[in-house]
Amino acid sequence: MLVLKYIKVRWIHEFDDEPILYFEELDDSRYERRRIEIYRSGVICPMTARELEALGPVDHMPLPEVSDLNRDEDFEAEEITAAEFETQWQLATAT
């Protein structure tokens, strides 16, 4: 049985062309199944596993644990619920 995890990661930086917030759905090997990127400009980019795989191996790797992400002062990560992720996914994919 597949066990999914959900995390929210804030990336603290000054780059205008990089996301500042991620919502991620992870499988039990910590590979992303879906990702939402939110940019400082307000642009929101939802991506499916297929789209993530197309980015190549650098962008399609298992994600570290939340505790490991939080060891880096540039990141603030937390686990969220499936419902929280789904709410964000619906907002991001609404047309």
Number of domains: 1
Number of strands: 5
The Cα radius of gyration reads 13 Å
Strand content: 25-35%
Structural class: alpha+beta
User: Helical residue percent?
Assistant: 10-25%
Q: Averaging pLDDT over every residue, what do you get?
A: 92
Question: Which regions are unreliable across 5 or more consecutive residues at pLDDT < 50?
Answer: none
Quaternary status of these chains?
A: single chain
Globally, the shape reads: globular
Question: Can you tell me about this structure?
Answer:
This protein is α+β, with helices and mostly antiparallel strands. It has one domain (5-93). Helix content is 23%, strand content 35%. The chain has 3 helices and 5 strands; from the N terminus they run E-E-E-E-H-H-E-H. The protein has helices spanning 49-54, 66-69, 82-93; strands at 5-11, 19-26, 32-39, 44-48, 75-79. Strands 4-3-2-1-5 form a 5-stranded antiparallel beta sheet. Strand 3 (32-39) and strand 4 (44-48) form a beta hairpin. It starts with a strand and ends with a helix. The relative contact order is 0.24. The model has no long low-confidence stretch (mean pLDDT 92).
Put the structure in a nutshell.
The longest helix has 12 residues, at 82-93. The protein has helices spanning 49-54, 66-69, 82-93, and strands at 5-11, 19-26, 32-39, 44-48, 75-79.
